[in-house]
TrEMBL record:
GO biological process: negative regulation of cell population proliferation
Transmembrane segments: none
Location of the Anti-proliferative protein domain: 92-111
Organism classification: Eukaryota, Metazoa, Chordata, Craniata, Vertebrata
Protein family (similarity comment): Belongs to the BTG family.
Record's protein name: BTG1 protein
Region (Disordered): 129-161
Amino acid sequence: AGAAMRTEISTAAAFVTRLLRAAGGIGEEQLRRFRERLQEELREHYKHHWFPLVPSKGSGYRCIRINHQMDPLVGKAAGVIGLSHERLFQLLPNELTLWVDPFEVSYRIGEDGSICVLYESPQPAGKASKALESSRSSCKEQWRTGRSSPSKNYNMMTVSN
């Protein structure tokens, strides 16, 4: 499963890293170390919870969540570069959900925000991916307005295969 989940994990780690980069104040070397460590944490965490034949199986286990509590995997990776949970809460959206599933990585900012796809790949054997009713414009708008703290300008990142 290690090689099979490489793209999805890389996409998720790159997304969180871009959020941190956009917030500012963290050097590129620190961001690189954070991203590498987050990838390691995700790979280890998902090792026995990756089911390409049933992509939704284990989805809750693979969900990265920031909602009044820091996701432990993000927190561990941030600790490597000396970022406290308090600082992470200042840098990242207050409400962030990131789903890392076989063939798809998606996120939502805010509890009622649109679900936006970062990465999607066709499933083998013609299995249909779950349909997401979200337009790119609502995702971009959510991206800008989905924070309770002062808004910052973020660039939308779309990754596809």
